[in-house]
Amino acid sequence: MDGVTVIDHPLVQHKLTFMRKKETSTAGFRRLLREISTLLCYEITRDLELTTERIETPMATIDAPVLEGKKLVFASILRAGNGLLEGMLDLVPSARVAHIGVYRDHDTLQAIEYFFKAPEDIGDRLVIVVDPMLATANSSIASIERLKERGAKNLRFLCLLAAPEGIERFREAHPDVPVFTAAIDERLNESGYIVPGLGDAGDRMYGTK
Ligand code: URA
């Protein structure tokens, strides 16, 4: 699918299976999410530009590779996005962080914004927007609209599971934002949940209902 990358690394697929299992505990789910997000972060950043910096090793002076440009921004769509965020920050601790609070109105399934905080100079940085579930895409579409209004120009979207309907809506709304996901599931159900999916990611992560 154009603009969509499925991260099919065997470790990602293995961990995802355990996250899907309904008997996986809250602690287990959280641990797996942290581990898998590190792997997803590794994959989504594999084409970042490098430059060189002159350094001295104990043996010689060399021009060694370092990341080019300003620090990345990880933009977490609350609250489930925070589960992906933690593992990503393990890998890129210097990244800046944006938070976007949107909730789904249970009747309309529309995204309602209640919180937004992002770095001032977001337009000069690569922004990786994270939310584990790309379902109806209402919250991700709305969050990325807000980030673009604040000046973000270079964005990528990272999730764990995507529904075909969500991908289609997302790509239509933001064709300039590539999507990275660990799997594309079968469909959305009438309540906007991904099937087979893994249930409500936020509830599974935090032990709520
Ligand atoms: N959000 C979730 O947490 N799970 C879904 O299946 C869909 C949206």
Automatic annotation (TrEMBL):
Its EC number is 2.4.2.9. The lineage of its organism: Bacteria, Pseudomonadati, Pseudomonadota, Alphaproteobacteria, Hyphomicrobiales. GO terms for cellular component: cytoplasm. Belongs to the UPRTase family. Pathway: Pyrimidine metabolism; UMP biosynthesis via salvage pathway; UMP from uracil: step 1/1. GO terms for biological process: UMP salvage; uracil salvage. Its cofactor is Mg(2+). It is an enzyme of class 2 (transferase). This is Uracil phosphoribosyltransferase. GO terms for molecular function: GTP binding; magnesium ion binding; uracil phosphoribosyltransferase activity. Uracil binds at residues 194, 199-201. InterPro entries: PRTase-like (IPR029057), PRTase_dom (IPR000836), Upp_B (IPR034332), UPRT (IPR005765), UPRTase/APRTase (IPR050054). Keywords: Allosteric enzyme, Glycosyltransferase, GTP-binding, Magnesium, Nucleotide-binding, Transferase. Binds 1 Mg(2+) ion per subunit. The magnesium is bound as Mg-PRPP. It holds the Pfam family UPRTase. It catalyses: UMP + diphosphate = 5-phospho-alpha-D-ribose 1-diphosphate + uracil. Allosterically activated by GTP. The keyword Magnesium applies. Catalyzes the conversion of uracil and 5-phospho-alpha-D-ribose 1-diphosphate (PRPP) to UMP and diphosphate. 5-phospho-alpha-D-ribose 1-diphosphate binds at residues 79, 104, 131-139, 200. It comes from Pararhizobium mangrovi. Residues 6-208 form the Phosphoribosyltransferase domain.
